[in-house]
Every structure is written in C-alpha cells, then in structure tokens.
Write a structure and sequence with these properties.
By secondary structure, this protein is an all-beta fold. The chain has no helices and 31 strands.
C-alpha cells in the first residue's frame, strides 16, 4: 500500500524515479471506514524528472591476502548493473570490527574497476573486514549491500609440517592457540591423566549444565596436499544416545564455523549426531559420542577440499542439562603440508591528493567528472568530482609515481604525472583546447 485515508480526489506520488513506469489501483471507503470497495482498474504513468534508482550489485566476492613482502589485501567482485544511466563506480570500506556500518569514516577508496588492491596502513596478522558498494555516478545513489569479507595480511607462505604435542610452557608448543568457553564458565584444561605424547593433553570436562567450550588452532594455509591428524579418547553421556559430545569445525573467515564433512575423514570418523533434546549447544551436529576412556586413537583428515583458504580448526565440546560422564582428551596434533606465513612489512600511512576539475581556465567546476589515480603497477583508484568540481584521494601511498587522469562527457583533459612524497593540494585540471 502506498497511501491510505486520503480525503482528496487526487494524490501526488513523490517516491518515484524518473523514467520508470508505475501502475496504480485505488479503493474507496464509506464514511465509517469499515466498508471498502473493490480495486479500480489499473492505471499506468511514467515518471518525469531525475532517475533515482540505486545500482543492482551482489557485493564483494573475494578478499585474499597477497602474501607478499609488503602487507596487501586483494579484493574483487562482479560488475554492478546501473538502475539509471550510470556509469558505475565502487566505494571500498574497511574496518577491524566485524559487522561494521560502512560510511565516510571507514571509506578507504573508490574505483571504476571490479578489483581493488588495499595497501593502506595494513599491519601483519591483523584481521580486516571489507564491504564494497556500487554507486551510480549519474545520480550519486549508492546501494546498501552488507556482504562482508575478511583478510589477515601476512608475508610469503612456505609449506611446512606443524606439530603440536601440548608439552610446551602453558600447554602449547606453538603460538596462536586459544581456549574459551562459548557458554557456561568452564574451559578446556591442560591435563596429565591421559596423553599420547609424553605427559600432557587438553581435556574438556563434561558438565551437568548446558555449556560448550572450544580449543582453537592457529591459522594455517591449505593446499591440495594438506592433512590434519590428532589423537583422542572420550567418554560422553550416554552409552546409547548422544546427549553430550564433541565435534571438529573449521573456519575460513574467522566468523562462520562449519562441521568438518564426513567425506574428509580417512580415519576416526564421527560416530554419531548430537541429540536435540535437553538443550545441548551443539545439538544436531555430527560428533564423537558415547565412548570409554582408554588408549588414544588417531583421527586423520584430508583437507584438500579447503585448498586455497587460510583455515583454523577447533575442537568443540557440548553438554546438555543433566548427566555428565568424563569428557574428551585431545593430544598430538599434526598438520602436514601446511602453508605457514611469514610476516609482511606494514604499509605506511598514505597522504591526501586533492584538486579541482574546471570547465575552462576561469570557468566553473565540472561536476561528476571521473578522476583516476594509477600507480606504476597499474593499480587504479577512482573518484567522482563534487558540485564545485572538487576531488580527493585519501591514503595514497608515498614514494611512487602516479598518473592522474580525468574523464568527462563534455571535456577532454590531459593526464598529469606526479611523484608523491607528501600531501598534494591544488592538482587542478582544465580542458584541452
């Protein structure tokens, strides 16, 4: 319904977009408002004025770590379709907080391309979250998709075998392991009652209250030959029904966790599915159930289906609201043919490049001209001039030579070559004769 309770015999629809055709039907009501007529026949009208439709855009498709000497994130997406005349440009937003709201404060660049290489002030090992939105430069309308991707910048990746015996100080041989309660207050504990390697393992103690806890690996790169193995022993409630249990999950983005598929196991597959009765937080997931504490057995997993991703895995134990048995012991984790990342060099903070685009030497500013800055490697960022012909590029990396060019429907401008060592203002353009 567009409007209701209109007393007049006419109505002005101000929500339309110029050039689009709209269809209308109306109904009438008696004085009490309780009796409504059938709908009228359909009438159509094509709106005049400015087209105000937003582009149609599916959002960011990929965000990957460049894995080079300098920290860099590479973004890509499929082209948007203009709702009006276009052309389309893209705004790139970045934050270190997942679920952030894109806006001027976190806008890091614009481009006309369907790729963007972010080299601005990135720090090794920090997780960055990105959103890309399409803008129709003809009417300056920006669509509002919320598709988010994350990247953890690092240096070059080499293949190695990661071995974790859980015998180091504090329970870990390698940095990057974490251990937390997702519900309840009990976490995994470093334990010496069961082990496959000399003396220690990590134990999830089962509880009689609803709770779950995770033991999380450091991130590692996966290729076609990467495998994961570990040893464990467990005893969960009960002998016949999977009321309590433990599962193995992975994430490729640090946000969404997925149960390891049965097809990936080459030994030690899950033996049940956690019951949906009694509120276990991992209800419905494939898991290890039942069991008896004894000699540890090995689980082996082929990770080839995750090739090309940086992955974390976690051991996720869950308890329901009643009986508890012993729990779960995990030891001797080996990740073979893992991609181990070195550290990348943090990229320096950038500078601003600003100027105006004029219609003549003494003329007015040219609005909606597309200004593009391109580095020596062909990486291009674009922006659109404002009402006074002004433009601005923020966080431009210093120490490089750039070509700055302008595209306009009415005028032709010669590109300018600049070497950037500090902020530049007044990089203005006037049309060629």
């Amino acid at each position: 319904m567009l409007a209701s309770n209109i007393a007049a015999t006419s109505y002005v629809d101000n929500t339309v977009s110029g050039g689009s055709t709209y269809s209308y039907k109306i109904t009438g009501k008696d004085g009490t408002g309780g009796c409504e007529s059938t709908q009228s026949t359909c009438s159509e009208a094509t709106a005049t004025g400015l087209c105000t439709l937003a582009p149609t855009f599916a959002g960011l498709t990929t965000a990957t770590n460049a894995a080079g000497a300098s920290c860099q994130a590479n973004l890509s997406w499929s082209a948007a379709s203009p709702g009006c005349s276009g052309p389309i440009s893209y705004n790139v937003y970045r934050s270190t907080v997942s679920g952030f709201v894109p806006g001027p404060a976190n806008l890091i660049g614009t481009t006309n391309s369907t790729t963007y290489n972010d080299t601005n002030s990135l720090i090794n090992g920090t997780t960055y979250y990105y959103v890309v939105r399409a803008k129709d430069t003809g009417n300056n309308v920006i669509e509002t998709n919320t598709v988010q991707k994350s990247v953890v910048p690092s240096g070059p990746v080499t293949l190695s075998t990661l071995t974790e015996t859980f015998e180091g100080a504090g329970g870990f041989d390698n940095a990057g392991w974490t251990n937390q309660a997702l519900s309840g207050a009990t976490i995994w504990t470093w334990d010496a009652t069961q082990s496959q390697t000399p003396t220690h393992s990590w134990k999830s103690t089962s509880l009689t209250t609803v709770s779950d806890r995770v033991l999380v690996s450091p991130p590692f790169g996966v290729n076609a030959g990467t495998t994961l193995s570990f040893w464990h022993t467990f005893a969960f409630e009960s002998a016949t029904t999977c009321f309590d249990g433990g599962t193995l999950e992975y994430t490729t983005d640090g946000v969404t966790w997925t149960v390891m598929p049965d097809a990936n196991f080459t030994a030690g597959l899950f033996n049940g599915t956690v019951s949906s009765s009694f509120s276990n937080p991992i209800a419905g997931k494939r898991a290890w159930c039942n069991g008896t504490i004894g000699a540890m057995t090995q689980v082996q997993i082929n990770l080839a289906s995750l090739a090309g991703n940086t992955v974390r895995v976690r051991w996720h134990a869950g308890d329901d609201s009643s009986v508890a048995v012993t729990g779960w012991f995990v030891d001797s984790v080996t990740i073979a043919n893992a991609g181990v990342a070195g550290a990348c060099t943090p990229t320096a903070s950038g500078v601003d490049v600003t100027g105006r685009v004029f219609s003549s030497a003494e003329g007015r500013g040219v609005r909606n001209a597309v200004v593009t800055i391109t580095d020596e490697n062909g990486n291009a960022h674009s922006t659109v001039t404002g009402a006074l012909g002004t433009y601005r590029f923020a966080e431009v990396e210093t120490g490089h030579t750039y070509i700055v060019s302008v595209r306009s429907r009415r005028f032709t401008f010669a590109p300018q070559v600049v070497q950037i060592t500090d902020n530049i203002s007044g990089l203005d353009f006037t049309p060629e004769p």
